[in-house]
Amino acid sequence: MENLLEVKNLSADIEEGRILHGVSLSLRDGETHVLMGPNGAGKSTLGHVLMGNPVYHVTGGQVLFNGEDVTDYSADKRAKLGMFLSFQNPLEVPGLTLESFLRNAIREKTGQPLKIFTFKKELEAAMELLQMDESYATRDLNVGFSGGEKKKAEILQLMMLKPQLAILDETDSGLDVDAVRTVSESIRKYQQQMKGALLIITHSTRILESLHVDYTHILVRGHLVRTGDASLVEEINEHGFEKYIEEEQKQEQAAGEVR
Amino acid sequence: MNEQDVRDIDRSLYDFKDDESDFYRIREGLTRETVLQISEEKHDPAWMRDFRLRSLEIYEALSVPQWGPSIEGLNMENIATYVRANTDMKGSWDEVPEDIKNTFEKLGIPQAERESLAGVGAQYDSELVYHNVKDEVAAQGVVYTDMESALTGDYADMVREYFMKLVPPTDHKFAALHGAVWSGGSFVYVPKGVKVDIPLQSYFRLNAKGAGQFEHTLIIVDEGADLHFIEGCSAPKYNIANLHAGCVELYVKKNARLRYSTIENWSKNMYNLNTKRALVEENARMEWVSGSFGSHTSYLYPTTILKGDRSHCEFTGITFAGEGQNLDTGAKMIHTGKRTSSYINSKSISKSGGVSTYRSSIFIAKGATGAKSSVDCASLMLDDISRSDTIPAMDVRTNDADVGHEAKIGRISDEAIFYLMSRGISESEARAMIVSGFASPVSKELPLEYAAEMNNLIKLELENG
Ligand SMILES: Nc1ncnc2c1ncn2[C@@H]1O[C@H](COP(=O)(O)OP(=O)(O)O)[C@@H](O)[C@H]1O
Ligand SMILES: [Mg+2]
After folding, report:
1. Among A99-103, A243-247, B245-249, which is the least confidently predicted range?
2. Residues B399-422: pLDDT tens digits?
3. Does the domain formed by A5-93+165-258 have CATH 3.40.50.150?
4. Inter-CA distances, B234 with A235, B200, B205, B242, Å
């Protein structure tokens, strides 16, 4: 089967220096991958680079989506192709209601006029599943939302936009126990009913409990040091990243010696 | 991608010009003779002719303001202060000359009148070409007419009593200029206790090149009455300076309410030196909603005198300064009554090197006990070359005033643009959504079709990259 997402030797910089160093990974349609790594490893950066944030300059490598080279595509173009990023820190947009934002996004994404009735019903159902009060639809996007509410609003967008691949950046952090359960239910629905693929950035196993995980990747200081199966998540949970940090340092030293 | 680059804004929607070859046009420049000539053309009563001449003397004695944006590009020698199309005022659109009627059709005025207005006045250059008020509103005793008719009609005494008393010609140089050459505008009187359910609107269109428009609006809302008045302005673009120095005087009597909404949409060769003032009596309420778009340079600070006890004023305004524009806008509140309150909510947007300055002043007089005032101003810069300044002044002479001020100046967030784009929204649309959202506290205050016009203007300003 062809890969849905293929990241080939991807490097990305900001003015201050390199953040991602030759990252490679591939993900097939419908698969769920987990991305773990210590704080500051570059996980969010990878998510943003995959989505096309122009703050980061891609200095090497490629991103293929459904076989198409999207490395130079703008974010909206990637979204239209079926990519989605749930932000670790969703932005606030005063004066733009969540609902009118969703309407615009769906209209722009599909290039079709919106079917209002269907939209309303879907929105209602999705909000109910997420246990979001319907009043949130008419509130300004993320303005005055608590951390947890912002994350729920991200997943609401996921459910409404139905991308082929969703990158979830620490969607579970900032959520209480019940909210994690609620949110995972929506994510499971996305995974199982919509057959969506996932790249989940997380520090905990709670959000993964009800999900089937195919692969786990570990990112340390911008290097993808290990890819394994679901059991890797458990291992990290027990022993932490220490082993992988050492591994990365050794690899760096070795690379330095070769040079 | 270079969304921030604006060449010339596509204002084709507003930017059409009519042939003016058979119009009456006074010689450029400003002398005693031109003022007398205007007075004669307009068949002024004697007191008004004298008023004009006195204003001219004051004009000559005053110097141009030095504290605001430069108005060096404005030379009165090159401005025709009076231009009249070859028509008189009509009460039916069918009688208005075809090309002028088309102008207002394109601006959507007759349609708006049919759909949602209680009365309309349409001024073209120096004179009103159309005026009409719905029968049921006239039957309530509401007077809505052009200033010229008011000057000699049943309300002549009232006009004389109120005309330029709130904004005297001595106020500043351009108020004096207005006193000397004013022409057109509207007079509204709403009798005691009368509530006008749907708005009245005056539209001012300056078609002539190198001309000035000096309309005078005088509104008196009597005790317990209620009115919403809408003012719209536009002009096509020329490569030489035009001048707008209108004057608006609003009297809101005891327990009355007046809402005054404006969308000024001038072309970018316009010097907009406009003076607006309201006097608010006991327990009355004044609401300003103001959208300032276009113009080369603007000086605009609607002023409210909260004279009556428990009087209240709200000002909601937005200013958008693009390339080559310097817009100096804001509001002034003068509290003299007891337990008065004012609230200013101002937004400004600057782009492509535009300069937008928010200037406000709150004055709480001695004896104005229990006053409350709150100012909230926010500026959004769309790039690194644009400028936004905030100049708030406060002068509080009581010791129990409750005065608050909050100012925010920021650049449009690239992260927020990326956030919206990550949902499939194009960059230009994402910018427009953020800017419209920023402006929404103002557009929310406007009637639906004007809110749509404002959003359209914002889009126009953002496009053409
Ligand atoms: N826009 C940015 N500007 C400056 N530094 C950044 C930026 N984005 C990321 N970084 C830096 O890159 C490193 C990786 O950050 P991030 O991708 O957020 O890590 P993670 O998500 O794994 O915690 C950090 O050192 C962070 O400070
Ligand atoms: Mg992160």
Report:
1. A243-247
2. 999 999 999 999 999 999 999 999
3. no
4. 70, 18, 5, 12
